[in-house]
Amino acid sequence: MNKTITLANGNGGEENNELISKVFYKHFKNDILEKSEDAAIIQGGELAFSTDSFTVSPLFFAGADIGKLAVCGTCNDLAMMGAKPKYLTCSVIIEEGFATRDLEKIVKSMKRELEINGAIVVSGDTKVVPKGSVDKIFINTTGIGEVTKKGISSNSITTNDVILVNRDIGCHGATIFAAREGIEMSSNLKSDCTSLYPQVKALIDADINITALRDATRGGLSAVLNEWSKQSNVCIEVEENSIPVSDEVNGICEMLGFEPGALANEGTFVLAIDKNDAQKALEILKTFEANTMASIIGKVTDTHLQKVVLNSAYGTQRFLDTPTGELLPRIC
Ligand code: MG
User: For residues 179 and 214, what is the distance between their CA atoms, to the nearest angstrom?
Assistant: First the structure.
């Protein structure tokens, strides 16, 4: 580890993993934490428990704001464990001088998103700090969900599974970047930020054999696939052609030299589904409005254990690595 923390230590990629394992896991070590799931499974598998802090800049952007994000982020991590979000806490750190009207706008948008999840805020905390001590507002939410489908785990993926993604990737990262740089896309580019519980519920209700789910937030699709290949000790082989990317996101990536697979998402998740159920799962995903580009993107093999292989459109192969460097700080 470096002597001081760098922005790269918060990137959702390689350096972030290093910080987590060498500082937090080292001292907090326990069996639940070490499963490295999206949410901790506690109380004999009955409850899912997760927390997330939100520092996004700007606070308001196409498709969402920090409030919507703060509810989606935590509720989605619960949903990824097959849990129905139930109870949330809401802690805010507000900078002196922040507009009350903006605060109310943020809280209203949290309320709207809580309703979609059928969850309520049952505890909270408010701190106001002197001007300059924090940039406008930071929000932390912690959530408890009721596990409705047990056994979903990123440590259980086998060659019996195929890999799907529910929609086109990279919209959130591209939107935040465009907003920050003042790039006018005069297009439909907006954050994918959405609550994923309704989609997970539809899959569970249809009795789909779900092995693992993970929302592709910081570090994007590339981070999730790499985490899974290591956690389940498998090789994940994806077809570049099958990974859905919108023209708008491709445009931003070409302009700035990003890989769509490394861009953050807030309503995009990766699924490891039993081969026999993959087609049915795809059909269910496509019934949701934002998911017209849902796709089966790859398979699980044992050729290069703990690696992700990308098969390009030209028939070449390369490893898809965990993103590194200061991707985009304050993306969420
Ligand atoms: Mg997650």
Answer: 26
Q: How many angstroms is it from 76 CA to the middle of ligand 1?
A: 7
**Looking at the chain, how many residues does it have?**
332
Residue 6's contacts (CB-CB under 8 Å, 6 or more residues apart) are: 15, 326
Per-residue confidence in pLDDT tens, the chain, 332 aa:
889 999 999 988 899 999 999 999 999 999 999 999 999 999 999 999 999 999 999 999 999 999 999 999 999 999 999 999 999 999 999 999 999 999 999 999 999 999 999 999 999 999 999 999 999 999 999 999 999 999 999 999 999 999 999 999 999 999 999 998 888 766 789 999 999 999 999 999 999 999 999 999 999 999 999 999 999 999 999 999 999 999 999 999 998 889 999 999 999 999 999 999 999 999 999 999 999 999 999 999 999 999 999 999 899 999 999 999 877 889 99
- How many A from CA of 217 to the centre of ligand 1? 6
CA of 34 to the centre of ligand 1 (A): 15
Q: How far is the CA of 101 from the centre of ligand 1 (A)?
A: 30
Ligand 1 centroid distance, CA of 130 (Å): 32
Compute, in angstroms, the gap from residue 25 CA to the centroid of ligand 1.
Answer: 17
- Residue 220: closest CA among 315, 297, 328, 314: 328
Query: What structural domains and CATH numbers belong to the chain?
Result: 31-147 (3.30.1330.10), 161-319 (3.90.650.10)
- Is residue 300 a contact partner of residue 158, using CB atoms and an 8 Å limit? yes
How far apart, in Å, do the first and last CA atoms of the chain sit? 24
